[in-house]
């Protein structure tokens, strides 16, 4: 039999989610939560077992311990997109699955718009891709948790190259 591999232990922030997938060459999938889907989304702590048949028809199984931990929301107030691979992008961290952000320059011009889960702000202007000047920027951030609840945050960011 071929091994059926899942991460044995995973942590994620409460409010976010973890996705587990069985490789595409396995079939007859059965998760301990009753699902028979190839991919499942886990929203809370769980101990899971999955069984499936490998490409040779041999049974295989794997377990995964998933732990939802309390993570504080962190919204940085300064970043330095200077290419040194440290603090080169601005993004919040914590328990959410979506983080829509709008970032404005000192005169109210929109310089970034997007989902911070997918696209972190690297200090460039959304329209021309040019680096934004050093300074203070205003943000509006709408966070959405996996359960659909959300919160809106506003504040300032200092950009220093």
Average predicted confidence as pLDDT: 96
The first-to-last residue Cα distance is 54 Å
Number of helices: 0
Coarse morphology: elongated
SS-derived structural category: mainly beta
Regions with little confidence, pLDDT below 50 for 5+ residues: none
Query: How many strands in all?
Result: 11
Main pleated sheet: 5 strands, mixed
Strand content: 35-45%
What spatial order of strands do you see in the largest sheet? 7-11-10-8-9
Order of secondary-structure elements = EEEEEEEEEEE
Can you give the helix content as a percent range? under 10%
Provide the gyration radius in Å: 21 Å
Describe this structure in words.
It is a single chain. With 161 residues, the chain is mostly beta strands. 0% of the residues lie in helices and 45% in strands. The protein contains no helices and 11 strands. The protein has strands at 9-13, 18-21, 27-31, 39-42, 46-53, 59-69, 78-79, 98-104, 110-115, 135-144, 150-159. The strands form 3 sheets. Strands 7-11-10-8-9 form a 5-stranded mixed β-sheet, with no helix packed on it. A 4-stranded mixed β-sheet has the order 1-6-5-3, with no helix packed on it. β8 and β9 form a beta hairpin. The protein is elongated, with a radius of gyration of 21 Å. The model has no long low-confidence stretch (mean pLDDT 96).
């Amino acid at each position: 039999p071929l091994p059926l591999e899942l991460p044995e232990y995973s942590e994620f922030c409460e409010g976010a989610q973890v996705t587990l997938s069985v490789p595409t060459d396995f079939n007859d999938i059965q998760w301990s939560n009753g699902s028979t889907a190839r991919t499942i989304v886990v929203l809370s702590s769980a101990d899971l077992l999955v069984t499936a048949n490998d490409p040779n028809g041999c049974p295989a199984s794997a377990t995964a311990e998933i732990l939802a931990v309390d993570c504080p929301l962190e919204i940085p107030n300064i970043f330095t997109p200077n290419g040194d691979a440290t603090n080169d992008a601005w993004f919040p961290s914590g328990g959410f699955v979506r983080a829509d952000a709008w970032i404005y320059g000192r005169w109210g011009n929109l310089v970034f718009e997007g989902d911070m889960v997918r696209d972190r702000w690297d200090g460039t202007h959304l329209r021309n891709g040019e680096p934004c000047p050093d300074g203070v920027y205003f943000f509006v951030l709408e966070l959405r948790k996996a359960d659909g609840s959300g919160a809106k945050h506003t504040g300032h960011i200092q950009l220093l190259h």
